């Protein structure tokens, strides 16, 4: 096997995908392991695990096993430690938080400045998977930058999960988060209401009308915050992603913030049909792009975290579950089908939204954030040749765009 050392890890893994994706068997159907994998959670081993689950049609069962193991080891304290450590050592999540918070705050302050003397109410529909780590800084900014009476703020957080995923641990965590958010709001002097809504399955099946987002009537200004959540709408089902963007437009929000990871993990037309997503060509395209994206993500973790870190291990295992979902599950069932900024921008424009450029103040806040981290991180705008031009900014690791943040209004 000495010849394996002459090809890169990515080339070897793509070779395995091409040779095994459609049932070619060898050694009794077992998958060979690349000789350079250092541990069981190395990036290549994770993709091999996904390939094996695909060959044996055991993807959903494997995901349930991984999710159950995660559920047993999840507590509020472990979730909090991982989130805070991730924010401390990497801008991956805080980049989108700072950009989105800036756009939401400026939109709300515009409303407050133009409002009459009656009490102003703000409501954020939070479609994200960040366990509310975004909101303490917004609460503080709202308290300190409001000119007169501090407006009333409500946050409705929708916590989405796959139907097969255990939810007990997440529900425990969200109860604790809600209590802490309410306590912090009292300290800041912000009238505040928090509600967590647990949703199982495709985000497109969420009944937005049932959320009662206008409890304050016409005086309630609504913001919709979508952080790594729109990919929770499974592509290839009657243009569901287009329809969901249109449903957000019907809410008549003041602003919609969209933060998504930059990767082309849909087969072709993401909403055209279910059949095209599971061809050999489609699978290899998604496999190769997934290998590129997750390799960059793992590289950023490796260079940001100590080698022995429970928080890094938790993040790598989360990425591992995403990879197994991507590689082993049918396209019509995968919850990890990321798209590019260009695709999301086209969709938002088609739904009736226009991009809102981030102000220079917000851009300065993002640049200031990135200066806190190790070299290799940068912010860049979409090029003029990009169909996402004028819509948001990218977080890049070693010049490779990996996270996209944008703001939109009807």
From TrEMBL:
<comment type="similarity">
    <text>Belongs to the GRAS family.</text>
</comment>
<protein>
    <submittedName>
        <fullName>Uncharacterized protein</fullName>
    </submittedName>
</protein>
<dbReference type="Pfam" id="PF03514">
    <property type="entry name" value="GRAS"/>
</dbReference>
<keyword id="KW-0805">Transcription regulation</keyword>
<feature type="region of interest" description="SAW">
    <location>
        <begin position="328"/>
        <end position="409"/>
    </location>
</feature>
<dbReference type="InterPro" id="IPR005202">
    <property type="entry name" value="TF_GRAS"/>
</dbReference>
<keyword id="KW-0804">Transcription</keyword>
<feature type="short sequence motif" description="VHIID">
    <location>
        <begin position="122"/>
        <end position="126"/>
    </location>
</feature>
């Amino acid at each position: 096997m000495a010849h394996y050392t002459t090809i890169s890890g990515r080339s070897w893994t793509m070779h395995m995908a091409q040779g095994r994706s459609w049932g070619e068997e060898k050694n009794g159907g077992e998958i060979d392991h690349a000789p350079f994998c250092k541990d069981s959670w190395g990036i290549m081993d994770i993709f091999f695990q996904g390939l094996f689950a695909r060959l044996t049609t055991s993807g959903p069962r494997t995901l349930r096993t991984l999710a159950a193991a995660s559920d047993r080891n999840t507590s509020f304290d472990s979730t909090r430690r991982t989130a805070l450590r991730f924010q401390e050592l990497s801008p991956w999540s805080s980049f989108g938080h700072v950009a989105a918070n800036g756009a939401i705050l400026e939109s709300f302050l515009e409303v407050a400045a133009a409002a009459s003397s009656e009490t102003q109410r703000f409501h954020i529909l939070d479609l994200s998977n960040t366990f509310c780590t975004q909101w303490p800084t917004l609460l503080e900014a709202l308290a300190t930058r409001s000119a007169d009476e501090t407006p009333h703020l409500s946050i409705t957080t929708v916590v989405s999960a796959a139907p097969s995923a255990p939810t007990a641990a997440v529900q425990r965590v969200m109860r604790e988060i809600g209590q802490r958010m309410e306590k912090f709001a009292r300290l800041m002097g912000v009238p505040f209401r928090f509600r967590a809504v647990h949703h199982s399955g495709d985000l497109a099946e969420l009944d937005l009308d049932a959320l009662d987002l206008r409890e304050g009537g016409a005086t309630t200004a609504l913001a919709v915050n979508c952080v790594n959540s729109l990919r929770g709408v499974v592509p290839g089902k009657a243009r569901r992603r287009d329809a969901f963007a249109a449903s957000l437009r019907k809410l008549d929000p003041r602003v919609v913030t969209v933060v998504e990871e930059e990767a082309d993990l849909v087969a072709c037309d993401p909403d055209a049909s279910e059949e095209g997503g599971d061809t050999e060509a489609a699978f290899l395209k998604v496999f190769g792009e997934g290998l590129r994206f997750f390799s960059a993500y793992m590289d950023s973790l490796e260079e940001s975290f100590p080698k022995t870190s429970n928080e890094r291990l938790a993040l790598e295992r989360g990425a591992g579950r995403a990879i197994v979902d991507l590689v082993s599950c049918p396209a019509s069932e995968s919850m990890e089908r990321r798209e590019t900024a260009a695709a999301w921008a086209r969709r938002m424009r088609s739904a009736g939204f226009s991009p809102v450029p981030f102000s220079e103040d917000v851009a300065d806040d993002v640049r200031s954030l990135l200066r806190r981290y190790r070299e290799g991180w940068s912010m860049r705008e979409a090029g003029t040749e990009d169909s996402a031009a004028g819509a948001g900014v990218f977080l890049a690791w070693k010049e490779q765009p990996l996270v996209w943040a944008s703001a939109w209004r009807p």
